[in-house]
Amino acid sequence: DKAINRWWYRRQMRVASRAARLICVSEATRQDAVRFLQSPADRCTVIHEGVDRQVFQPRAASQPPSSPPFILFIGGDFPNKNRPAALAAFAQFAQATTLPHHLVLVGQDATSDAELLRRYPDLNLGRIRRLSHVAQDELACLYRDADLFVFPSTCEGFGLPVLEAMASGAPVIASTASSLPEVAGDAAVLVDPSDADALAAAMQQVLDDRTLHQRLRAAGLARAAAFTWQRAAMQTLKVYQEAATQEKV
């Protein structure tokens, strides 16, 4: 219900505006807090999220690659996840190359096949697999098996799927929007989320150039290793301690 959502967000904004300290999951989120809540910048602390590397880990060397190989998209049809860009780019990619990749879409999805074809006439539905709901262990397997992960989101507070994919050994293409460059660093190819042509070209580049593919895979594994929940917990405890000390003064 949109009315309930509006009420909830207004309530959360009132609570946040009175908080002694705000923990922000990214610098992009911190800037939003300063801008929209008028929170003093020195009350806003960035603490990045972590990734569970016991769950999200690369495929064993002895495990054969997925057949057919696939590109993975996660986020459903929520507007900010920008699924239209992924579908439009994949339709271009499939026509421009002989690579056999399919596209796996994970997340809420109420769009019929007929509607997909109306929106993307060049799309080959035989190469599209849609999964509305998957358990965490299934999601981990999809990340491990993916030959490429694409995340062209237009707005993310943090963008945890990028790290989950990296920790699983999947090369990543992400967008240049909001927090994603901050999270991905130089371990992903970044594209304008409004440019489906650029996304299609990046897909082809990464999958054609296996040297680049391996470089992104290695860089992603190293990048994900730097984001741990233990570090996030320790940083959070420090903020609580500082806030408590300020209350006593």
What does this structure look like?
There is one protein chain. With 249 residues, the protein is α/β, with parallel strands linked by helices. The chain has helices at 2-18, 27-36, 83-96, 113-119, 136-145, 160-167, 180-184, 196-208, 210-225, 229-248, and strands at residues 22-24, 44-46, 70-74, 102-106, 128-131, 148-151, 172-175, 189-191. The protein is 48% helix and 12% strand. Strands 5-4-3-6-7-8 form a six-stranded parallel beta sheet, with helices on both faces. A two-stranded parallel sheet has the order 1-2. The model has no long low-confidence stretch (mean pLDDT 93).
List keywords for this structure.
single chain, 249 residues, alpha/beta, 6-stranded parallel sheet, two-stranded parallel ribbon, 10 helices, 8 strands, globular
Note the topology.
Elements: H1 2-18, E1 22-24, H2 27-36, E2 44-46, E3 70-74, H3 83-96, E4 102-106, H4 113-119, E5 128-131, H5 136-145, E6 148-151, H6 160-167, E7 172-175, H7 180-184, E8 189-191, H8 196-208, H9 210-225, H10 229-248
Parallel strand pairs: 1-2, 3-4, 3-6, 4-5, 6-7, 7-8
β content, as a range?
Answer: 5-15%
* H/E element sequence: HEHEEHEHEHEHEHEHHH
Average pLDDT over all residues: 93
Terminal CA distance reads 43 Å
The shape is: globular
Which structural class fits the helix and strand makeup?
alpha/beta
Approximate helicity band: 40-55%
Q: Output the strand order for the largest sheet.
A: 5-4-3-6-7-8
Number of strands: 8
Poorly predicted tracts of residues:
none
Q: What value does the Rg take, in angstroms?
A: 20 Å
Number of H/I helices = 10
What's the main sheet like? 6 strands, parallel
